[in-house]
């Protein structure tokens, strides 16, 4: 099994990252380089989280093996070994051979840092650029990132000059590398604590509120009112941009040098606008540069950028509106079915997507009623209590992990108890649950936060390229300090435990933080205590209240604005519900009409076709007869048709021309 666990987790994490990226991104419409870069960033960050428990168990086994083979007073290299254990050291099932993990962590870490500090910012500017060629987009991205890269180069250059001039500093390359890692981790830890303080409170509270049907329904009404405003704003913005595109398309004719740029812009427009502009175009007129003023290529690039943004925003709001409607209808169905005597879940509307037959077989209406109306609220309450317990343990450990005698961090206590018995399964499970919960608290906040319309991760393939790349940057900057914080909570970091024991392979590539003692002994230890203040602020919704006072509409139960938006959203949902009911009633009537009269229409249609075939064959056989006979037979056929029509329609007995039928007189004659 040596190395097999590492290979399995590498494959599993890849498909996990691919699944999440498929949920938020759009593989068909977005650029391949954007998809590949984002997938690589997410994959590396998730890989660090999943592989780190294996590194911990392997390190504990190496410590045990070293302690057994050495005497208590014997010194071995740069660290002192522990007392020999009476129990034999068992090799863990997930043991990774020596030399693999340092190389693995070095490749993963420096690749993620290259992505977050160099490649992804450049690709963000490239994706948002409105240029019409690869060269133009690269030029725009370099200009936009010149200040970004120049600032870092200026700081790094000033630091190198200071070190070179000051004789008290004698730094080597490894120490400079450690300083760079410490600077990146400090920036990440600053943001990590902010996101962690929000997630530790909001995740248990969201699951607890998930058991309240009335709360979820009111919040859905509130979201509907806000989303309708955003949807109307997106439609208005798209109309304005399309009007500008129409004017540009009409002014720049087919033989203008910039016509290719206009055609590129038109391809990004929705189909209905393309057809409308295509009908109004008149490309038979030549352009005259002396009479008309034409837009420049720079202004067309700006318009191209606005078109991409407005179309993406409009499409996203349309999809989110449909998803929110389905959610609101389902919550209303749950509220209605709670008092059902038959204990079978009845949906107001049928699902628009075909359901799996296996799911339909097991997830019957009775099972669905028991789950939605009885079991699911209690399941969410129990899960909320478990998550709240984890949050309390994390907060306590963040405030006490610097204490080594006695050990107050609960995570460190759990790991040390398992280390005494060398229960590697328990060690890996405890490490995995701890770092997985920390990652969920941090990463879920990244998925939830929204910076106006510049950064927003929307599910159902509605996230734009800029937001995907920005999320990859955040993940790569947050994951290394998150793992260091986890190792500090479990006292696996020598900087925290103050023991000269064998470090983990992950901390070995970070170097010794003693180079910057004020960061190792100060910021890394005492700054995470700030999570207590952030948790208290999140619990009392101080941030939400501040945003509400500033005019940003937030869901608050005791706010008058929230009540007005809930009423508005309820009316919008009711209106959409009536509209969908009318559509379904119309479809049902058409279906019933087709089922009732479809066979009759088919038989009538086949009889008419048979009659036409007989008439055509009759006319072909009599083609060689005299013209008078052909005319008389044709007249008899027309007479038969008129008689059928007269039988079908009511007769007008007051008409004077009832008997003045020329065909009747012809037959009498």
Automatic annotation (TrEMBL):
State where composition is biased (Acidic residues): 658-669
Q: Which residues form a coiled coil?
A: 224-251
Task: Quote the biased-composition stretches of kind Basic and acidic residues, using this chain's numbering.
Answer: 582-617, 635-644
Can you tell me where the transmembrane regions are? Answer: 6-21, 33-52, 103-126, 146-165, 177-201, 378-396, 425-446, 466-489, 523-542
Membrane topology type? Multi-pass membrane protein
The UniProt entry, under Pfam families, shows: LMBR1 (PF04791)
Q: Where is the composition biased (Polar residues)?
A: 618-634
Tagged with keyword Transmembrane helix: yes
Sorted UniProt keywords:
Coiled coil, Membrane, Transmembrane, Transmembrane helix
* Subcellular locations according to the entry: Membrane
- Looking at the record's lineage, which domain of life comes first? Eukaryota
Output the InterPro entries linked to this UniProt entry. GPCR-associated_LMBR1, LMBR1-like_membr_prot
**Stretches for region Disordered:** 576-669
Where is it found, in Gene Ontology cellular component terms?
membrane
Any one GO biological process = adrenergic receptor signaling pathway
Q: Does the keyword Membrane apply?
A: yes
Family statement drawn from the similarity comment of this UniProt entry:
Belongs to the LIMR family.
Among PANTHER family, the record links this protein to: G-PROTEIN COUPLED RECEPTOR-ASSOCIATED PROTEIN LMBRD2
The name of this protein is LMBD2 protein
Its taxonomic placement starts with: Eukaryota, Metazoa, Chordata, Craniata, Vertebrata
Gene name as annotated:
Lmbrd2
């Amino acid at each position: 099994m040596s190395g097999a666990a590492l290979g399995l987790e590498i494959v599993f994490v890849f498909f996990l990252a691919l699944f999440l990226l498929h949920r938020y991104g759009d593989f068909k419409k977005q650029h391949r380089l954007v998809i590949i870069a984002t997938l690589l960033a997410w994959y590396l960050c998730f890989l660090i989280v999943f592989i780190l428990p294996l590194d911990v168990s392997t390190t504990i086994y190496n410590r045990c093996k070293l302690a057994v083979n050495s005497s208590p007073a014997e010194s071995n290299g740069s660290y002192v070994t522990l007392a020999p254990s009476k129990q034999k050291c068992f090799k863990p099932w997930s043991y990774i051979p020596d030399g693999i993990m340092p190389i693995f962590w070095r490749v993963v870490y420096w690749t993620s840092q290259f992505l977050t500090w160099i490649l992804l910012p450049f690709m963000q500017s490239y994706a948002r650029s409105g240029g019409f060629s690869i060269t133009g987009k690269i030029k725009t991205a370099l200009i936009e990132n010149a200040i970004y890269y120049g600032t870092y180069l200026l700081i790094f250059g000033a630091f190198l000059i200071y070190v070179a001039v000051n004789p008290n500093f004698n730094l080597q390359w490894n120490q400079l590398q450690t300083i760079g890692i410490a600077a990146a981790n400090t920036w990440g830890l600053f943001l990590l604590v902010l996101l962690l303080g929000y997630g530790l409170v909001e995740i248990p509270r969201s699951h607890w509120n998930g058991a309240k049907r009335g709360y979820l329904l009111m919040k859905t009404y509130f979201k509907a009112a806000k989303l309708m405003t955003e949807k109307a704003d997106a439609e208005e913005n798209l109309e304005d941009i399309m009007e500008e595109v129409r004017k540009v398309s009409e002014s720049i004719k087919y033989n203008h040098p910039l016509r290719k740029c206009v055609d590129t812009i038109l391809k990004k427009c929705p189909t209905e606008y393309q057809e409308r502009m295509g009908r109004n175009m008149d490309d038979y007129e030549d352009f005259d540069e002396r009479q008309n003023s034409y837009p420049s290529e720079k202004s067309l690039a700006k318009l191209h950028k606005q078109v991409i943004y407005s179309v993406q925003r409009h499409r996203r709001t349309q999809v989110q509106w449909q998803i929110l409607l389905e959610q609101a209808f389902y919550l209303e169905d749950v509220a209605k079915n709670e008092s059902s005597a038959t204990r079978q879940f009845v949906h107001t509307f049928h699902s628009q997507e075909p359901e799996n037959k296996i799911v339909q077989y097991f997830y019957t209406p009775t099972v669905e009623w028991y789950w939605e109306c009885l079991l699911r609220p209690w399941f969410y309450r129990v899960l909320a209590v478990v998550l709240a317990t984890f949050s309390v343990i994390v907060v306590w450990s963040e405030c006490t992990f610097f204490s080594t005698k006695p050990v107050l961090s609960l995570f460190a206590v759990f790991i040390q108890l398992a280390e005494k018995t060398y229960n590697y399964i328990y060690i890996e499970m405890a490490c995995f649950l701890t770092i997985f919960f920390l990652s969920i608290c941090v990463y879920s906040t990244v998925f939830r936060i929204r910076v106006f319309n510049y950064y927003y991760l929307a599910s159902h393939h509605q996230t734009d390229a800029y937001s995907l790349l920005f999320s990859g940057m955040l993940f790569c900057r947050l994951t290394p300090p998150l793992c260091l914080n986890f190792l500090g909570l479990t006292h696996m970091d020598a900087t925290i435990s103050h023991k000269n024991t064998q470090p983990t392979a992950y901390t070995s590539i970070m170097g010794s933080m003693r180079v910057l003692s004020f960061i190792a002994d100060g910021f890394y230890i005492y700054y995470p205590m700030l999570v207590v203040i952030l948790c208290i602020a999140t619990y009392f919704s101080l941030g939400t209240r501040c945003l509400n006072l500033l005019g940003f509409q937030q869901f608050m139960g005791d706010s008058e604005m929230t009540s007005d938006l809930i009423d508005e959203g309820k009316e919008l949902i009711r209106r959409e519900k009536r509209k969908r009911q009318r559509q379904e009633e119309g479809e049902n009537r058409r279906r019933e009409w087709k089922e009732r009269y479809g066979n009759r229409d088919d038989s009538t249609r086949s009889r008419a076709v048979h009659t036409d075939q007989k008439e055509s064959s009759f006319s072909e056989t009599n083609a060689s007869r005299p013209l008078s006979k052909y005319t008389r037979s044709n007249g008899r056929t027309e007479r038969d048709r008129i008689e059928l029509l007269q039988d079908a329609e009511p007769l007008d007995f007051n008409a004077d021309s009832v008997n003045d039928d020329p065909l009747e007189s012809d037959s009498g004659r």
